[in-house]
Every structure is written in structure tokens, then in C-alpha cells.
Amino acid sequence: MRHRLLLRRWAGRRTRHRPLGQSLVELALVLPVLMLLFAGALDLGRVFYSEITIENAAKEGALEAAKHPTSFDNTKPCDKDTNRVLCLVLNESKGSMYEIAPADVTVSCSPSPCPTSPAVGDTVSVKVVGHFSLLTPIVSQILGSTMTLSATSVAQLGMQPNPGTGPSPSPSPSPSPSPSPSPGASSSPSPTPTPVCVAPTVHGAGKIDVSPSSGTSSSGGGAGTLFTINAPTVDPQPGCSFTYSWSFGDGANASGSTVTHTYTHQGSGHQYEFTVTLVISTSGVPMSWTKTVDVTVNP
Question: Is 72 a member of any domain?
Fold first, then answer.
């Protein structure tokens, strides 16, 4: 009887300790899997962050190249006077988890080579390529140990407005003594003054209005977004007329104060930024405005 009681007590202790040991074994089996999943999520986050860094660097380089397209050489170190585009791209990636190499930055113009005196519709393109290494084995087996990330940004080359040579005002004639009117003599008509046209000015903020603000392209047989684009309201000048010249950033042009345009898919990628440029002129005196339009590839 005593032996049976001791066996029951020993079995009770063994039963009470079994759940704790089982939990430790399960934790030991599941913990490596959870750590791999967590490391994979961190690795994908690094990829996303690096992609944003490369895109921002390409945009910064395009904005600088629009003003100084010839200030670029990826075989020479960064210089704020002679290599401004490369400096802007490299500085954008400093302090991030991924730094861009000078050899991974290229600049091209349309037309090529980059013109010293750009015209309406001339663009510059900055492309940045990054080589990203994955650390997590499970993600490397799916995406490969090395990924190539790239971003391209296109901007309208900046134009310096020409001062133009408008008609110079005619000097006012010196008054001559008026003869005494003879009976029945009709007075001669006074001369009409010649209008003097100056550079156009606009009301308010003077911005280009694009409706809608973003849309899709017409690639793949789908119907793209028809953008309606309005020029800013120009202050009138008596006796002067204005001409409106548009460049949509994809090689197409138009004229008039209000125009419409549908973008078609070009190159590779899914998202594009086109720079719409407007030049308003009167008697050879032009002024220009720009507006960026976001276009998504229509599947």
C-alpha cells in the first residue's frame, strides 16, 4: 500500500513538469524560424530604403542637370564648380545604408550631346544604378544574392529668356506753330502712337493648370488620360498679341492658351514624370513656365 502511494506521488510530479519541458522544446524549434522571418523582413526593408535613396538621387541630379547639363564627369571626383551634377547625386546618398558609386551615374541629353543653348523640348536624363547585396539566406534564394536597382529622372533643360529687341518708341514730334485756321479748312488727323511690347507678366501665382493632376498612359491598347492644360492668365498690353508654345516633355508640341494631350508609354517602368514647358512670347520677348505631370503606365 505504501509503495503504491509513493508511485502515485512520483507520477503526479512528473505530470506537472511535463508541460514546461514541452514548451521549451517547442520554443527551441520555432525560435530559429521566427528569427529568419524577422531578418528577411529587415532585409526587404533595406531594399525598399535603398530604392528610395536611388530615386531621390536621380531626381536631385536631373534638377541640377537641367541648369548645368555639361557639369558632369563620372570619371572625376565631385567638384562644386566643374562637376555639380555628380556632387548632388552622391550627397543625396551620404548617411544612408547604401552609397552610390560615381561609375553608376550617367547623364544623357535629347538631343545629344547636351546643347549649350537649349530650345523648347530639349531634355536631360539622369540614371542611377545601384548593386544591392542581400544578407538573409531565405530571401537570397528567392531574389538572388545581389539585386540591381535603378532609377531614371528626366527634366526639361532650362532656357534663358532672350531680352529681344522690341520696337523702340518713336520720339514725340516737336510742336510746330499752328497756322491760323482758314475758313473751311479741315484739321489733319493726329498720328497713332506705336505700341511698345515688353515681356509678358501673369496674374497671381502664374502657374500652369493641369487637369487632372495625374493619370495613365495609352500603352497596351488602353485609353490613356486626356490632360487639359491651361496657361496662366497674362496681363494685357494694348496693341500687343501673345503666342503660346507648349512642349509636353515626350517630344510632342502644341500652341494656344488651352491645349489637350494624352501621353503614350515610352521605355521601361511603371511611373513617369513629364515636364510640361510653356513659352509665352510677344514681339520676340519670351517667358517660360514649367509643370510636372505624373503618368502611370496603363496595363
Answer: yes
Chain segment 230-263, per-residue pLDDT in tens: 888 888 878 788 888 999 888 899 998 899 988 8
For 204, residues 6+ apart whose C-beta sits below 8 A from its C-beta are 232, 233
Q: Whole-angstrom Cα distance, residue 12 to residue 78? A: 77
76-93 b/e (C-beta count within 10 Å ≥ 16 → b):
eebeeeebbbbbbbbebb
In the chain, which ranges are E strands? 105-110, 123-133, 146-156, 209-211, 214-216, 226-230, 243-247, 253-255, 258-262, 271-282, 285-296
Q: What is the CATH number of the domain that holds 249?
A: 2.60.40.10
Predicted TM-score of the model (pTM): 0.41
Which of 156, 175, 191 lies at the terminal end of a domain, its last residue? 156
Same domain assignment for residues 232 and 127: no
Q: For the residues 103-109, what does the mean pLDDT come to?
A: 88
